[in-house]
């Protein structure tokens, strides 16, 4: 390996800027102070009525002024603010002049917008299913603002215009793995020599009454509403589901050579990424953890690292009974008897599950863990699951320097992705 090449002769990819928004607050410092102190951002939902719903809590972001608070506008606003922060930290101004890779939630018109179409519906004898009739009604309403509110591709177009990125912006949505997938695309673009830097953004402002109801129907959400801060309890015996949340994160990636040449501060190194598909079920992960095991091993192989090199694991840790059990099994298969000695914590115990944004949000926290020498806790860990033997950094932060981190994202629809990050190239 030369100074700027990895074990396979590819350009080493550095992180030079980070920005973040979660229910804990806006900006890296406020988020990290809250997360490392064990503060929860989960609260009662006030955005829409929750009467009669089994879940009435979430990690909504309610402190940013958004003129038209639909899912597209919220997701764009979160992404814009985190990108402003990341570029400032990277010391970059003017047009970014490099590719944009955006992870964004799948967007549908909210019910208020659908009801507004009622007077423009096609004749009663129109053939087709309900969705076809809905599309026909949309075609009869030439309203660009209405259409943009339902097009998630509009988010990346607006970000590209705002920050002067180069080429066609890429928008992707791979469920809970989306944030890692966006980072992975940025890593590969730099490794392949197509660019010396990339803007990788993941955002999710799609939390609505309909989203809450859909996840509830899948029995995926916690119904332990009182108190909200105690609902998310990854790896605990009494966990009953995840807490849905919002947020965004932006990472500026650069080839190490280019970053050093311009005198940029190096925040960390993206050592490797792995991804595998899971065809077991459209929502559930394979109980044997096979695809998750393969994902972790692929990330380690891509990084050129051994299991013994990992000093901390930022778990997917959703707090759902099946997913936590599956992830534990996958980690056990990879790390074996050493697993109980590796600190493993879940940021979702405090911020909830930010869905599309989760992989990037947790990558930012993973890098900050290494930079500060502080391991954030898994809060609400008061009733351990005896079948899951982990050092989850229970309830309080721990001051320990680690130099390499594994971060997992295992999502609905068979999307699995993992990142390996380090403080130094070697």
Stretches where pLDDT falls below 50 for ≥5 residues?
Answer: none
The H/E string reads EEHEEHEHHHHEHEHEHEHEHEHHEEEE
Structural class per helix/strand content? alpha/beta
| Morphology | globular
Strand content: 15-25%
Topology:
Blueprint: E1 13-22, E2 25-26, H1 28-36, E3 43-44, E4 57-58, H2 71-90, E5 100-103, H3 111-116, H4 130-139, H5 144-148, H6 153-163, E6 170-172, H7 178-191, E7 197-204, H8 209-217, E8 247-255, H9 256-261, E9 268-277, H10 290-303, E10 312-314, H11 321-335, E11 344-345, H12 348-351, H13 358-372, E12 374-375, E13 398-399, E14 404-411, E15 415-422
Parallel strand pairs: 5-6, 5-7, 10-11, 10-14
Antiparallel strand pairs: 1-2, 1-8, 1-9, 3-4, 7-8, 9-15, 12-13, 14-15
Characterize the structure shown.
With 426 residues, this protein is an alpha/beta fold. The protein folds into 2 domains: 360 residues, Peroxisomal Thiolase, Chain A, domain 1 (3-Layer(aba) Sandwich), CATH 3.40.47.10; 37 residues, no CATH class. The longest helix is centred in the N-terminal third of the chain and has 20 residues. The N and C termini lie close together (9 Å).
Give a concise summary:
This protein has 426 residues and is of the alpha/beta class. The protein is built from 13 helices and 15 strands.
